[in-house]
Amino acid sequence: MPAARPRASFEPIPPDFDVRTFVETADNFRYADRISYEMIKNNGIEQFEKLVLLHVIIGGKPLVIDGFEEVLDPWTFTPSWLRDNHGEKVENARNLTSKENIPLTVKHYLKHMSKLTEQFFVDPERYRDKTRQRIYLKDIDCPPVWQDKLKEHIPQGVFYLNESTGEIGGPGALDEPGGRKGRGIGRSGDLMSSLPPEMRAENLMCYIGHEGTYTPAHREMCASLGQNIMVNASELVGEGSKPERPGSSIWFMTETKDRHLVSEYWLSILGHDIEVENHFAQLIAWKKAPFKTYVVEQRAGDFILIPPLAPHQVWNRGTRTMKIAWNRTTVETLELALNEALPNSRVVCRDEQYKNKAIVYYTLLKYSNLIKSARAQVEMGGEQAEAIQRSVKIRQVQRDFKRLFDLYKTILLSEMFSPESREHPEFESYDSNVTCSYCRCNIFNRFLTCKSCKNLFSSEIEEPYDVCMDCYCMGRSCSCQSGYTWVEQWKWKDLLHRYEEWRAQIIDIDGQMTEKTPLPLQEERRYLGKKTLAQVCQEQLRLRPYVDVKNPKPEEEEEEEEEDVQVDEYGMARKPAKKKSKQWLTQHKSCHFCLHRHPKWKMAFCSNCDLSYCYGTLFRAHDMMPLTVMENHNWKCPHCRRVCNTGACRRDPRQHPYEPKGTLLGHDTKKVADPRSVECLVDFSVSNLNWLREDESAMQRRRDEAERAKLADPSLDDRYMDDDHDPNRDGIAYSPVNENGFEDSTIAGGDGYVAPSAVMHDPYGGGGADSLYPDPDENGEIPRLGKRNRADDDDEEEGGSRRKKKKKQKKSKDDALVPLQPKSTSGKQYQKEVQRKLLEDAKREDRFILVAARMKGKSKIVKLPMSSDLLEAIEQRPVPERPVPEHQRESSEEPVGELGSILQSDVLPAQKPANDIHRKEKGPKTFRYRVTEDETYSTRKRNLEIGGPVTKPGRPAKGSRRYEEVTIESDSELDDYDMGDFNESGAARRRARESNWLARKNAGEEDLPTELPSDFRDGQVNPNREKNLERQRERRKTMPPKSPKPKPTIRPSGRGPGRPRKSIGNMSGQDGVHEEDDQASALLLAKSAAATLEAREKAEAEKARATAAEREAQENLRAKMGIAEFFEGSGSDNESLNGFIDNLAADDEPLAHERDASMSESPVAQRTGPPQPTNSIFAKPGMVGKKIKIVSARSKRNGESASKTTTTTRIKAPVSTFKGVNAPASKRVELSSDESDSEDQIPAKAPEPAVKTPGRPRGRPSMIPTRGSSSGKRGRGRPRKTM
């Protein structure tokens, strides 16, 4: 299992981080060395290539070249150009927070970069929020136009896919078909160019990021050289005069020679593996690191060269950073890749995309042809022959050819079979697409394939399981474990022929046989001293058992020999002793370390003793890979070598226990490997923390190794060749730098450091120690190596040559914001155009003086003398209304700093945001309720007689039950239908809300509408809707205010002011009106009944109203006809007929004060009997002059049909009489109003009629349950339904 030790967490860098203060206050920080683009032009490309070799490749230190912003095309490398030309291209942006990819277009990402940036500046502590979106548009293809523009200015030796560093018309150049001179012979700047175009790995990528995006600590793939240039960064004012945050990138870089120390620091202290590339180290972790860290704040125009295998990480700042990066492969990086990088990547199963072994083969083919061409030109003689013999570039090609041949020899030796074997591998032509199914490395020639697993996933699709020889020796394979077939992609005899041909060329270059001259391949194998990789695979194929995955056999139970049953002293049978069978014991062996018995084919046997070790113990406790044991002819165990670290051997004074050199956290590779894969020898997911001591011995050991490596002189390295070929010189002259950073001419190779100033000469004749530690200002110019600083004086101490450092004068804030003046013509034109657009936008927004002052570096304060009267007049002048600028409207669409997703994909369909975990889930919106049939309105034959047949009491039959579904919607949901989702252009997109019933009703009719109008909720269908609503509001104002709720007290014997009791008998004999218990329940019941009767009894109600009020209806009709004739004659269109009638009806109603006055003047009738309830229907406000329809309803409890009688009476005052408590009359009341259709009939529940029913005592009437009735009640808080 992976290590269960604490791991460092992710800690973002604050937006206001000061790089200069951080670097100067830490002892292990220093700025990376810088040179300018002008120095390359003045010293030449050859000196620059020499600097890169000495400083970056051999020295292993980063290098920064600045000044490219002055020569790059300012019109091309801009976000507007990218938006216009590649804005519709879909790319996968990486969400660093959720570790997911978001498909989106380039223009969509560029549009939201400001919002993604400002979320970190709203609150000083907001940057620590783990839910912040960090969207990084990384690893996207570079536009071809950008590639061509960069190729014009980037030195050819360090550019992408450089095929030759030779000069045009140089030594060895051949005439091209067009008559022009070709390039001279020279080595390739990027050996990836040696591959055929279809085999190359496209690694020219663009990286666009905003504040808070980052790249975790990592190494460049396959130990290649990294190049990164920032082509554009945001400034204070962006396109369209939008305010932006200045963009830059902070790099934390290390040296190549510290790579083992950095890796151990990551594993043992931080708890992460640098090979996995999933951790961004905190600032405090870099500050406490035991190695030197180089810090670079990259701005627009800075070109960074990254050493091979040097860990580094990047943090982006500001609104926008746009960078272009690529990798180069050289002979030096190929050696590091095959010997170190690929074995490390194989353990964690990291892809190999660069095809390193294929690069070795194809580069040898290319260099062989170049050497043959040079040889042919030398034999022809002449001036060209002498130039070729003196050419340094041709000698570099010859030297690289020898080193590549050594790598080729190593590849062939690893693939040689045993001399006694007669293998006949299958042939498959090489296409560079065969990869290992486990570690995913690229396979150059020979590999193993399993034909039993090819149809494991599907019987129709064949998916072979191919495994490289390295993984098979590590115990990695499919479940079959054995029975593999050998496959090769090159004819072995062709590879041997190439070997002999290139070996002959090397002998011809040297002129004779030397100690370093390669031998024939068979002789080289004889001197190898160990088994080849292919030979080990052959032995393991014979040892490992074959497992048929199609017909798996159950594991045979361990054979046991049971002894006779024995009985103890109490007569109880003892548990029989179990013993392993002899056959099982012969096939298994006990490990000397873990004491477990393993199959013998999983054990490593010592050739000097009878001890054996399991491969897992050797890997974790002794740092030995399985291949290291298998390839040794006479392997000796740790006990024989006196380094065994078992518990018993530690007590032996002759033993010196071995301590692991490094930390292994363990990697669960099953997540990335083929699902058919197994690890049968070593479980690489288990860590070795149990074998480590709690000290820093491993860290100190790595530190000592790094210090010894730094003492080596780069100029004496065999990878470096003195280009000047001066016999009087043993190496180049350089000026080392001591630990304090001062240049000391008395030190000769103190720490093996080659300063760039030793190779790149100062065109101004200056350069000092201050240039090695530049102090980058926020927006000012960064001091460069070899460039004279006019602000510093060279004060020399008496009697010494060491220069004294003088503190620089701190620039003012306004001076630091002044941008650099471009030197190229295109740059000046671009800057003038940008300034012109900014001033035009500023003039429209009344910011002309401020923007113009900022451009010229002037103060922001403008003093205008004016009189007090004029100032007062200006202050009182009304502010003219101006349209909001477009960029301000866009920025105000979405609030900045809100939690949630700021940027979403514009390619995938929009997804509804997930419900908040704290938000309660909404209940179901559709309900079923039982419906009780009303026989009065049924279509069946009614029982006209009262004493008709009596139905059977009890619950109705199950089959007779009917249910209806009701969909409940809230007001917010209804409003959501009206509110459209605003798209990017601001136009509202209406949600699909169609009237299906209207479409079905009017189907086939061309003239009739099939859906409601879009503005049907805006009152356009009913023009008088606003007037009706205003009239209802006025009516509510006239209603008496609610009395405050009384405090809880002890109720006296009389009627208290609290909630009234139910009225069970206070009713008139003539009216038969049943009073409800309180005003609230009566109002709620009336509203619910009105809503139900509106849908089901509308026709009956209109008929009853017409019958009861025929005279009033005729009078109203005559009045309406007269009014209509009046309007037709006048031709007035100011108000519709219906609106006028509604207003007329409103005028007929008395006003509030008139109604109150009339009520106060009317005498109060003196009466006796029970007190009149205050919640009577007649006591309600606005009941004066109302028409009340009293409908008699008879009980249907015994099944008889109820006859309905309607009477109409005019009530002038809320006066009612009362009879006995147990009055027998029971009526059903309907209120009729001329004002609103929704309040035409308001039924009130009444007691049962005074029909004597057997079994029920006289007194309180029976209560009819309302559960399951068809009258739907409005939900809580739902407004009244209006027509």
Could you say which overall geometry the principal axes of the C-alpha atoms support? globular
Helix percent reads 25-40%
Number of strands: 31
Instruction: Tell me the radius of gyration.
Output: 47 Å
Question: Helix segment count?
Answer: 36
Low-confidence segments: 555-560, 724-751, 763-818, 886-899, 914-922, 939-955, 972-995, 1047-1077, 1130-1142, 1144-1149, 1151-1169, 1191-1283
Largest sheet: 9 strands, mixed
Overall pLDDT metric: 74
As a percent range, the share of strand residues is: 5-15%
The end-to-end distance, rounded to whole angstroms, is: 71 Å
Which structural category fits the helices and strands? Answer: alpha+beta
Spatial ordering of strands, largest sheet: 2-3-12-9-14-7-6-4-5
Structure at a glance:
The protein has 1283 residues and is an alpha+beta fold.
Write the layout of secondary structure elements.
Elements: H1 19-24, E1 29-31, E2 33-36, H2 37-43, H3 45-58, E3 63-66, H4 79-86, E4 90-95, E5 100-105, H5 106-111, H6 113-118, E6 135-141, H7 144-151, E7 205-209, E8 214-218, E9 225-233, E10 248-253, H8 259-270, H9 283-287, E11 293-298, E12 303-306, E13 312-317, E14 321-328, H10 331-348, H11 356-380, H12 383-390, H13 392-414, E15 426-427, E16 447-450, E17 465-467, H14 469-473, E18 476-478, E19 485-488, H15 492-510, H16 521-526, H17 533-543, H18 582-587, E20 588-590, E21 597-599, E22 603-605, E23 612-614, H19 615-622, H20 626-630, H21 647-650, E24 677-679, H22 697-710, H23 756-759, H24 813-816, H25 825-844, H26 848-856, H27 868-876, H28 886-891, E25 926-931, E26 962-967, H29 971-978, E27 981-982, E28 988-989, H30 996-1001, H31 1025-1038, H32 1079-1096, H33 1098-1108, H34 1110-1130, H35 1137-1148, H36 1152-1161, E29 1187-1192, E30 1206-1210, E31 1227-1232
Parallel strand pairs: 1-11, 2-3, 15-19
Antiparallel strand pairs: 3-12, 4-5, 4-6, 6-7, 7-14, 8-13, 9-12, 9-14, 10-11, 10-13, 16-17, 16-19, 18-24, 20-21, 22-23, 25-26, 27-28, 29-30, 29-31
